Structures are given as C-alpha cells and as structure tokens.
Amino acid sequence: MRLSIITPDKPVYDGEVTSVTVPGSAGSFEVLKDHAPIVSTLEDGKVIIRTTGKSEEIIRIIGGVVEVVHNEITVLAEGIIEN
C-alpha cells in the first residue's frame, strides 16, 4: 500500500506501508491491504505508520481527511505537531 500525508505547507510522508492507523472522528481505525474504499474526517491525534520489518513511525496531525482507494491512502492534514 502507498501512504501520502500532505499538509497545506508541504508533503510530510510518501512511501510504502503495511498498515496505518488514523484518528477518525468516530474513533481511531486501522487500514490494511485491500481495505474497502472510504473517506473519513480526522481529529487531532497520531497517525501510526507500520512498514515491513515491524518498524513503526508516529506523525501527530491536526485534523483533516483521509481517503482510501485501491491500496492508496491519502491523508490531507490541516497541520502537523512537530516534536
């Protein structure tokens, strides 16, 4: 699957993932390979990115929208919280 995280300022992430967890407005949910198409609003929170080899990366976002279509995941975030 391919994940892209984009803010109005810049692209934040673009790469292959095995799964991603996003902070949906109705609660966090995980997207795995061949997930049904979906569009959802996002709350402030953690986007947890998992890649091969069990590595995990966390990006904190400020709201936004996620779209999942044909193993392409696009997160349009209002912003990110820098650590």
From TrEMBL:
Location within or outside the cell: Endomembrane system
Q: How does it sit in the membrane?
A: Peripheral membrane protein
InterPro entries the UniProt entry points to: ATP_synth_F1_dsu/esu (IPR001469), ATP_synth_F1_dsu/esu_N (IPR020546), ATPsynth_dsu/esu_N (IPR036771)
Task: Specify the ATP synthase F1 complex delta/epsilon subunit N-terminal domain's residue ranges.
Answer: 1-78
The UniProt entry's GO CC annotations, sorted and at most eight, read: endomembrane system; proton-transporting ATP synthase complex
UniProtKB keywords: ATP synthesis, CF(1), Ion transport, Membrane, Transport
Record Pfam families: ATP-synt_DE_N
Q: How does it assemble?
A: F-type ATPases have 2 components, CF(1) - the catalytic core - and CF(0) - the membrane proton channel. CF(1) has five subunits: alpha(3), beta(3), gamma(1), delta(1), epsilon(1). CF(0) has three main subunits: a, b and c.
Q: Which family does it belong to?
A: Belongs to the ATPase epsilon chain family.
Output the NCBIfam families linked to this UniProt entry.
Answer: ATP_synt_epsi
Q: What does this protein do?
A: Produces ATP from ADP in the presence of a proton gradient across the membrane.
Write down what this protein is called: ATP synthase F1 subcomplex epsilon subunit
